[in-house]
Amino acid sequence: MAGSGKAHLRNPEDVLIRAEDLVVEFPLSKGRVVNALSGISLDVKKGETLGLVGESGCGKSTTAKSLIQLPPPTSGTVCFAGDDLTDLVGEDLRQARTDLQMIFQDPISSLNPRRKIGDVVAEPLRVWGPREATEQTELVNSMLEAVGIDPQISRDKRPHEFSGGQCQRISIARALVLGPQVIICDEPVSALDVSVQAQILNMLEDLKADYGLTLVFIAHDLAVVKNVSDRVAVMYLGKMCEVSEPNSLYVTPAHPYTKLLLSSSPVPDPEADIDVTMVEEGDVPSPIDPPSGCRFRTRCEYASERCAKEEPIMRQVSEDHFVACHHPLVSVPDPAEVSA
Amino acid sequence: MTESETPSRGQALLEVEDLSTHFTIDAGRLRAVDQVSFSLKPGQTMGIVGESGSGKTVLSRTIMRLNLGSNVQTSGSVRFLDKELLDLPMDEMTKIWGQDMAMVFQDPMTSLNPVVKVGRQVSEHVRKHLGASKTESKDLAVELLRSVRIPEAKTAVDRYPHELSGGMRQRISIAIALACGPKLLFADEPTTALDVTVQHQILNLLGIQQQERSMAMVLVTHDLGVVAGRTDEILVMYAGKIVEKAKTAELFKSTEHPYTEALLRSIPKTDQPSHTRLAAIAGRPPTLIGLTEGCSFSPRCPYAQERCFEEAPPLEETTPGHYTACWHRVGTPENQEAWDKNLAAGRLSTLAVEQGQIVDEVPLSVGPSDK
Lengths: 340, 371
Known about the structure:
The complex is a heterodimer. In chain A, 31% of the residues lie in helices and 21% in strands. Chain A has helices at residues 60-67, 90-97, 117-128, 133-146, 151-154, 164-176, 194-211, 222-228, 246-251, 256-264, 305-309; strands at 15-27, 33-45, 49-53, 75-80, 83-84, 100-103, 182-186, 214-218, 231-236, 239-244, 315-318, 321-323. By secondary structure, chain A is α/β, with parallel strands linked by helices. Chain A has eleven helices and twelve strands. In chain A, helix 3 runs parallel beside helix 6 (164-176) and helix 6 (164-176) runs parallel beside helix 7. Chain B has helices at residues 56-64, 90-96, 118-129, 134-147, 153-156, 166-178, 196-213, 224-228, 248-253, 258-266, 306-310, 333-345, 348-355, and strands spanning 14-25, 28-40, 45-49, 72-80, 83-84, 101-104, 184-188, 216-221, 233-238, 241-247, 316-319, 322-324. In chain B, the strands form two sheets. Chain B has an eight-stranded mixed sheet with strand order 6-7-8-3-9-10-12-11, with helices on both faces. The interface between A and B is large, with 56 and 55 residues.
């Protein structure tokens, strides 16, 4: 398998989710396939927030969705709390999914406009929760309160009566009502104004502490990801480029792609040093026919012949910092540490 | 506050004075833009910043006279190249659109015609305004696509928008806007729908083209990071009004309006450590319907005092070139005093900043809670 290595994975006993060699292919006509994910491995410890960053089309959302088997990956394994989710079918899989919930990007379209928000939040309980109606109501009320929405006033309102930020908080309440262990947040703040974004990010931190949640947080804004994450994974065209704890990643990025992302992010400081002349020709290559070797080589200023022939394998650069690159921007301590 | 009476008037390319745009809707009169004045010199870049609903898009559309509809009332004056645009008949406006003034819209997916090849869309203006022939205009289209760095421009002119990525489509929109060499370009959230790497390139492209053509540009965005390194001057809008106006460096260095300060504080930054608590802004923007007394930011403002709810602060020049509309400007002793007083009183909007709490219902007076 064209994997990018697993050096960054930690001891399986210490982690809550461990996904290995995830491959997701979507078939096209004439036998061609879209290589959405090509050998992604990642793990998340209990109580940790893993940030996933990358440009659109790099497979961030596909990774998140394949963790909850929506759809199941073409190949690879997802271990969660001792089970391999890819082996589960039918009732077992349904039951397992109650522990993994999701928050989506567009807060308004992810709520049914015709339903009252009390019912929207109660829906998971109607399927899985306690049978008693009063118990359900209590749970819904406490969940709405936890996200800062007054249940007495709001239960009978419909989504259009709320702002985007409030709708996103209602989605969070819906995701939390079954008491899941893991929340997958797929760009939860990209549709919101900065002032509302700050509220949601603060609230996710509070809820994480209160309910002992583990988060997988997807965003394209590097500053947002740094704010919430304990570990950040940078993805490009269905591959993992770099995995690190945030401080080391943002101060000394090792992968040229991470550096490109960092230098492109807008900084609210007029004195920041920005390169105002760089305009690349062309586009991100197509995942239908990805470049050989390192997939980033077509846009990489350090690319050599080796990059076209040989796929880089994930290796360690410092304690919790791993990179898959033949020409990393920081020195790699000892090649013996590279594990297969 | 305007310099329109001074002899430098001839230098300004665009002069907007007391411009208001109101919409009459069932619920009443919606003041989308209220008494906005600014001027822009040739070659200058102006940033307009604000949250959704602050009136920044309506302002740029009003200047270009794109608010067509029977329920719109516009007053004030927009002078562009010594013409009063608000009085011009529409057929005169069509001569200005594209040739002298052009716009790049936010969404490159919907601003292009899906059933027309991009080459024709790019050269449409040129054929209409400059009367270029078919072959001439095709060559020009190729030239324009090259100038916005579209690879293989010769074959790209025969493509349809759906065959191109979002970034490439936005480059096409820029090529369309630049086709006739306008003197003023409005870029309305040109990069909001795009990835950071593409955003960086589109902004660079706009900057390069602007310099080459010494064109003036108005960059409308909600992201202070986008305007920071790329504009000469910034207008911060809130509830249809300008609340602060200053040279870019000055605005970031000595922020005076509490709203600007709040926006800056709520943005996560890459040089902060992880899990830094962000300062939130309490409440949400006002509805803009009906008359409001006092400062429209006062319910959400951590520094608001009684006066703020009673009397709207005027936009005043505090230091040369720096205009702020606030009674308790950030950095002044009155501001510190107001903060201490509100914090002691437990004002919700102040606590939202101090503790990052979520506050939806903001107090409509100075008290800690008044509902």
